[in-house]
Specification:
Layout lengths: L14 H26 L4 E2 L1 H4 L1 E8 L5 H7 L8 E3 L5 E6 L7 H16 L4 E9 L1 H29 L2 H25 L2 E2 L1 H30 L8 H33 L5 H33 L3 H15 L1
Parallel strand pairs: 1-6
Antiparallel strand pairs: 2-4, 2-5, 3-4
């Protein structure tokens, strides 16, 4: 493709603009989280999996709207209601207070719907329930799973490459996760267990994309004259050399995900949306965040070559 043939784009020169873009998106996400906390009592739109409660998916035979169903379930005091899947199909998410049985809450919802639309005018398609204690435990375990993935990422790349490469990759992956969480808060996408699975998938995808670039940087460093080349030019050249692979891989992945978003139905819509955001942001960060972060670490702390030389000199002196 002509866009990638002998590419010499100045990605490193655009790093400060990228920092501004990332900071702006992060700021919007933080504001969205604060607004969510004030409006719904939590930073994110957590689902039943994390808050605890009962989820009832109901299909009503006669044409109706979510506003009419909300009025039937108590008006302003009604639990959150969203349209789901086919027409006249809705999901009701009701919290469960301490000391109240989950089955009683589900039965009360069904009775209210029956009173408004008739006994045989609706069908309960799905019912899920999670206790509040289990929901809190799931929140903690989800956070630990993401943190654990960061630690493994740092260890793997530190062993596979060098420690500075590992730190740069963790910075980029952390950037990706926080950007995605901010956008999820902005659009109030429901956070459920599949969303956590998508976030962990993003970690793997972002890591894979970053490793491709880092591997080319290492190859160019170890080539003849690589250590004497200007680091900024070397890193920028490495990004351009891996650009076809990066863009084509992301493009084919996005093609599949967009098909799932359009044709996959409401059940996997949020999961697919999170993955699409992750692929876009992961591709962006591998170019504009991970590689510049590597340069900044090298600029501040060096490459470690001086320390290795000092250690080798000390070993030779001890041998004598």
């Amino acid at each position: 493709m002509w866009l990638f043939h002998d590419a010499k784009y100045g990605f490193i020169n655009m790093r400060r603009k990228a920092y501004v873009v990332s900071a702006a998106v992060l700021a919007v996400g933080i504001v969205a989280m604060v607004v969510n906390f004030a409006a719904i009592g939590s930073w994110q739109n957590y689902g039943v999996d994390f808050l605890g409660g009962v989820l009832v998916q109901v299909r009503i035979e006669e044409p109706t709207t979510d506003a009419e169903l909300r009025e039937a379930l108590g008006g302003t005091d009604a639990p959150p209601i969203t349209r789901f899947g086919e027409e006249n199909e809705f999901v009701v998410r009701a919290p469960v207070e301490e000391g109240v049985a989950i089955d009683d809450v589900a039965t009360a919802l069904a009775a209210q719907i029956a009173a408004a639309y008739g006994e045989d005018s609706f069908e309960i398609v799905r019912q899920e329930s999670v206790g509040p204690k289990i929901g809190r435990e799931l929140q903690g375990r989800a956070a630990l799973a993401i943190l654990f993935s960061f630690v493994l990422t740092l260890l793997y790349i530190a062993i596979r490459f060098e420690f500075r490469f590992g730190v740069a990759s963790v910075i980029a992956t952390t950037h990706d996760i926080f950007i995605v969480l901010g956008l999820l808060a902005l659009f109030r996408v429901e956070i459920a267990l599949p969303t956590v699975a998508a976030l962990l998938t993003i970690v793997g995808y972002s890591l894979n994309d970053t490793i491709v670039v880092f591997d080319r940087i290492r190859e160019n460093l170890n080539a003849r004259g690589g250590r004497r080349e200007d680091p900024y030019k070397l890193v920028n050249r490495s990004i351009n050399e891996t650009l076809p692979r990066t863009v084509l891989t992301s493009g084919t992945t996005l093609g599949v995900l967009l098909a799932l978003l359009v044709l996959g139905g409401a059940v996997i819509r949020d999961f697919t949306l999170v993955l699409i955001l992750g692929v876009l942001i992961g591709t962006y960060s591998s170019i504009f965040i991970a590689s510049p972060a590597l340069l900044e670490i090298q600029k501040r702390y060096g490459t470690g070559d001086a320390r290795k030389a000092k250690q080798q000199k000390a070993r030779r002196a001890a041998a004598v």
